[in-house]
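User:
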Amino acid sequence: MAPMRLDNVLAEMGRLNDDDSKRQEYIEQACNRMLHQPTLGAQLIARICAADDGGQLDSLRDLLYTSLNSARMARESNLKRGGEFLKALEDAVEMAARQGRINLDRSLFLSSIWTRNNLQAPASLEVSPEKLKEASLQRPTAPEAERMEADAGAAVKDLVDSMVMSNDGDSFAVYDQLTATFPSIAPEAREQAIAWTVSGSEPVHKKLACFWLLSPDATIRLSAAQALAKSAVSGQLPADVAGRLVTLRSWMPIDEARATVDQILKTALRSGTSKAPAIKPWNARSVTVTLQDGAGAQSVVMALQSGRKRYVAMLLLKHGFGVKDIILHRASSAMEQNMLIEAMNVIPGHAVPLPWLENFLAMSMAEGLAHGNSPHPGLVEVADLCGFKDLRPKEITTQELIDSLPAAKSVRALGPKKRGNLVDASEDWWQEHDVVKSWFEHGDDASEILEAKGVEGPDTEVPELWQWMRTRNDFWARHIAKGADLLAAAGHPDAESFTAVALVLAEGMDMKKIPVMRHVHHGTIGMWVYDKLDVGDERVHIVSEAEIGNADEDYDVDISPEQPGELNNILKHVKLTVEWVDGFMMMVMRATEKIPPESCLAVLFKRMKVVEDEPEGERLHDLLFLRAIACAVYFTHQEQLVEYMRGIDDVGMRQWAAGFGDAIKEFKEFWPTKSRTPQDRKWIKRVAAAKNTDFTDDELLELCGWLVVGWTG
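Assistant: Predicted structure:
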């Protein structure tokens, strides 16, 4: 696969402009590949600096936002390429700034994209005095400087006031907007804005003071703490703000800002000016929480209501980061609220009681603080809305967590056989819980082991990987214990099985004997193989339309054509047919997520009992390649697909349906339940039945239309 070119990416984005979902899916795929080519990051910054306002700048913005997000997540998963790509972007920004190619508008444009990704914007984006001079602002004389300083103070106040007004007093929205502007304004102006918001007496100002204290930027936290300290010394610190600080200090990492808050509290307690604010919680109409994915991330979605006011809150929790991100949306009606919730619930969650969530958040906060990460500032708002009056971080060890699980005592009391059955039940978790399909080891440590071993396929057993995974025993025991806690709160029957697996991991059972850990082992290898293929590993793979060119043209393939009956002769001894192979391949190419070619070939060779490196195996490789090309032609020419399907007799059609169904069983994780449309569910069920019940001609036409329309190439 040739290296990516930015022009090609932008052209494809333009082609997909009328289909938002496919466009975003393409951008995400392209950005994941971009991480392997850091030079593309530098090119992207150069294009943004040179672009005029308009459509191309919008596309460049979308590409930069998603590439930053992909790089951040890769870095959080301990993948070096994430940090390397971020550094390439930052270096490109610094170079462009030195060369004078970033004007004031572009500085704000770029810094806001970094901030929206919860990343600290490059220092070179700050609007320095030199940049102001370039904008034709003359250096003032001393008297003029005093006047301008007063004017600047008034401008800061006007900026904050205008944001409060435009957001109808929504303090979190004001915080979000102000934070986006901070990287591009000088530190003095930033401190002035913080001081102004902290000194205000309105509810919005009091909330903003709390938000600043939880900023991921240590300088912002310190500026807010120092501004509050001045108010405390002058006796102007509101008692309810001081009351909030009693709890809020425990949310802050141990640093100078927290030490300043502690001093404020001493002053407030001595003067008796500290009291907790009276807060009336909203009604939580629904609270759903997802299981953790393989990287330790999970989401919380809540529908909150007070009278006719409605909110939808989404929290992202992540191992090592705590309460990492929060999104708050106002909803004007119950219908809009339900639509927002549906859009957020990409992964199905489990309904839980609100008190359970409070305890779970306390544990997550402690995990984040252990790594120096305070919870997202939006947690202040969420705690108020939910009535969490005394939410504080709660440290709990993995063993303590397991011991506290509702089923821990009863599972420990079971005999070896029954307990073993619960552990063996983890073999089927992925069928009930889609997110379990994402459970594999992230990071370069595992990749380096597999690279050193020269692993070829996902079914390989790698002793060195097992040995390394044992060092991650506590992570997986805690990971699964959290799942057990969640499922127990939701009343899900798998809570007992999750508890049993967490227990045996904590007790030191060999991971190889635990089905779900075997899934993690093979999933880690599979994703590593897929990752290599995705960035251009030159191996034979099942081609798509994009790779073989226009389907109207002859394919230039240096392979001898299939002779009549040739493939059937190879398949005869395993009682399979060419129709079965075509059905299998059509499912592989029709699935909603890309199936690693190596995985597909590995399954086919195993089913056909053929060794790939032997002469028969080499020829089978060629024949499967030709079959893949034929399927690609059928999927781009519906009339040819209909003709082919009508030409299959009843026995052959049942074989085709069997092949399609067998591929679904083999690769369920690439056609997850959550991504299936009603039509998908209908035809997957009908194809399964076709092994015994023939298609009518009308059904055959409709089936062909479904296959063609759903194929993305």
